[in-house]
Structures are given as structure tokens and as C-alpha cells.
Design goal:
By secondary structure, the chain is an alpha+beta fold. The chain has a single domain, classed as 50s Ribosomal Protein L5, Chain: A (2-Layer Sandwich), CATH 3.30.1440. It is built from three helices and seven strands; from the N terminus they run E-H-E-E-H-E-E-E-H-E. It has a five-stranded antiparallel sheet. The chain has a two-stranded parallel ribbon with strand order 4-7. The longest helix is centred in the first third of the chain and has 15 residues. The protein is globular.
């Protein structure tokens, strides 16, 4: 098989939306720090939305990106929280996966923290192939040709094979 066709995990992004509630944001930062032993960053608003009381520069959530070995080690634990079962709707046409974990205590190896309480998070997994760097490089950046992109079916096959994932209806 062609080595350039091998699929790998580019990154795993953990995300918690808090809205205007600053105490929930602080709890979310503490939760991401305790799960991964890495420092999360706050996400801030860029637009003003009058109805929601948001203005530019206001922190409304937090996120954390894991790459390479950290991502590969963390993903089986996160999938364990959803019983290694995802629906086909959670895969997009570009081979990315997104799913939510309603309560963080479902993640294997994570203990309940009374300071944090019960809180959920969103997990986004980005897959790539060798050669995807051409879309990110500074000089001569190009689009990924259609024959090299990752389809939904290829992503489902990769996740089922690598992480013993079951694809079914919810």
C-alpha cells in the first residue's frame, strides 16, 4: 500500500463552552487541566451579539489541543467515556470526528472533583495523511487534491480498526 495514503491523528481538541458565566469558565479550565495535565486557553468573542449580552474580548469558553503522542494516548480514554460507540452523523465529509461527553466522570481514570461539579465537554478529532502540510505551509501553499482527502467512509474504517470503535445509531 502507498505510504502517503496512511491515515493518522493530527490533533484532538477538547472544548468547554461557558457563555458569560465566569465561574463555569474557571471550573472548565480546572477540568481540562486535571484531565490532560496541560494548560488550556480561554476562547474570547470576536463579535458583538446584543441579545446574548456578548461583546468583543469577553471570554466565553476554554479549549485545549493535544497533538502527536498525547493525542493518541488520550483518545482511547475519551472514546471509553462513550462506550467506544459513535453514530455515523458524528463524522463529517472531510473525515473529522466530533462527539460530546455529558459528564467528565465517565472518562476512565478521572475522579469526581467537588470543586468542579458535574460538567461536560466536546471532543473534536482531526485526521490527516502525510502531505497535508501543503495546505499549512507558508511558501507555495496549495489545496489538498480530492483524491488525497479523507472521506467519511475512510475515517470510519480507520477509527473502527485502530480504536475498536462501533458505529451505530444512538
Amino acid at each position: 500500500m502507498n505510504q502517503m495514503k496512511n491515515i493518522r491523528i493530527e490533533k484532538v481538541t477538547l472544548n468547554i463552552g461557558a457563555g458569560k458565566d465566569q465561574t463555569r469558565l474557571e471550573k472548565g479550565l480546572a477540568l481540562l487541566r486535571s484531565i490532560t495535565d496541560s494548560t488550556p486557553v480561554k476562547t474570547i468573542t470576536k463579535k458583538r451579539i446584543q441579545e446574548w449580552g456578548l461583546r468583543p474580548g469577553l471570554p466565553i469558553g476554554c479549549k485545549l489541543t493535544l497533538r502527536k503522542n498525547k493525542a493518541v494516548k488520550m483518545l482511547p480514554r475519551l472514546l471509553g467515556a462513550v462506550d467506544n460507540r459513535l453514530s455515523e452523523r458524528q463524522f463529517d465529509q472531510n473525515g473529522n470526528i466530533a462527539f460530546g461527553i455529558p459528564e467528565y466522570i465517565e472518562i476512565p481514570g478521572v475522579k469526581y472533583d467537588p470543586k468542579i461539579g458535574i460538567m461536560g465537554l466536546e471532543v473534536c478529532v482531526t485526521l490527516e495523511r502525510p502531505g497535508f502540510r501543503i495546505k499549512r505551509r507558508r511558501i507555495l501553499s496549495r489545496k489538498i487534491p480530492p483524491r488525497h482527502r479523507i472521506s467519511k467512509e475512510e475515517a470510519i474504517g480507520f477509527m473502527s480498526e485502530q480504536f475498536n470503535l462501533k458505529i451505530g445509531d444512538e
